[in-house]
Write a structure and sequence with these properties.
Elements (H helix, E strand, L loop, with lengths): L2 E8 L3 E2 L1 H5 L11 E2 L1 H11 L10 E3 L3 H14 L3 E3 L17 H13 L15 H12 L7 E6 L1 H5 L12 E7 L12
Parallel strand pairs: 1-6, 4-5, 4-6
Antiparallel strand pairs: 1-7, 2-3
Helix pairs in contact: 2-3
C-alpha cells in the first residue's frame, strides 16, 4: 500500500480590508491577500524542518493559500500544484455571504450541530464530512510521492487530524494512504 506523508501548512494571516471595501461577497472574499505579518509567517514556516524532504507543494486555490505556497515554493525551490477542492469549508452554499461575522456565525452553528447542517436553516453550510470527502479525493492522486506540503485552511486541516487551534502557518504532519478515514466531528470542549 502506498503511503504519503502530508505536511499541512495553514495559510498566513489574511487581510480582508480590500475585499470588504469593494463589498465582495461569497468567493470574492477569498481573493484576500496576506498581511505583512502573514508573509513573514509563511517565510518562517518555509524554514521549518518538518518540510525537509518534501517533493511538491499542493495548494488551495484561494489567494491567501496560494500566496503562502508561493513564498514556501520560493524558499524551498518546489513546484506548486493547485487543487480546487482543497479550498476552505463553505460557510454559505449560496455563495452570498458578505462578512467575517457571517462566516464566524456559520462556524458556531457547525459546532452546535456537530458538523451536519440542519435542513431548516435559510443559508446552508457545508457538512464537515463533505469537506473531508472532496479534499481526500484531491489528495489521493499524490500517493506516488513520499512527502508533500499541502497549503490549505484550518477547518480543512482539522478533518485530517484534529487540533483545537491551528495558528496561521501552523504545521500538522499526517501519515496518509488510500484508506485514510475522516477523523469525524470532535468537540472543542
Amino acid at each position: 500500500m502506498l503511503m504519503t506523508k502530508l505536511i499541512f501548512v495553514r495559510h498566513g494571516e489574511p487581510d480582508y480590508s480590500k475585499v470588504s471595501k469593494r463589498k465582495y461577497i461569497g468567493h470574492g472574499r477569498d481573493l484576500s491577500e496576506l498581511t505583512l505579518l502573514g508573509k513573514e509567517q509563511a517565510r518562517k514556516a518555509a524554514r521549518d524542518r518538518l518540510l525537509d524532504g518534501s517533493e511538491l507543494i499542493v495548494s488551495s486555490p484561494y489567494t491567501r493559500a496560494l500566496q503562502t505556497a508561493a513564498i514556501i515554493s520560493k524558499e524551498r525551490n518546489l513546484d506548486i500544484e493547485i487543487e480546487l477542492d482543497l479550498h476552505e469549508w463553505l460557510p454559505d452554499l449560496t455563495f452570498t455571504f458578505d462578512s467575517d461575522e457571517f462566516a464566524i456565525n456559520a462556524s458556531r452553528q457547525c459546532a452546535v450541530h456537530k458538523g451536519i447542517c440542519p435542513e431548516n436553516i435559510e443559508k446552508k453550510w457545508e457538512n464537515l464530512e463533505n469537506l473531508f470527502i472532496r479534499a481526500n479525493h484531491s489528495l489521493k492522486k499524490y500517493l506516488e510521492y513520499n512527502k508533500i506540503i499541502v497549503v490549505s485552511h484550518g477547518m480543512l486541516m482539522r478533518q485530517f487530524k484534529f487540533e483545537r487551534q491551528i495558528p496561521y502557518c501552523g504545521i500538522i504532519e499526517v501519515e496518509y494512504d488510500e484508506n485514510f478515514k475522516w477523523c469525524g466531528f470532535i468537540e472543542d470542549n
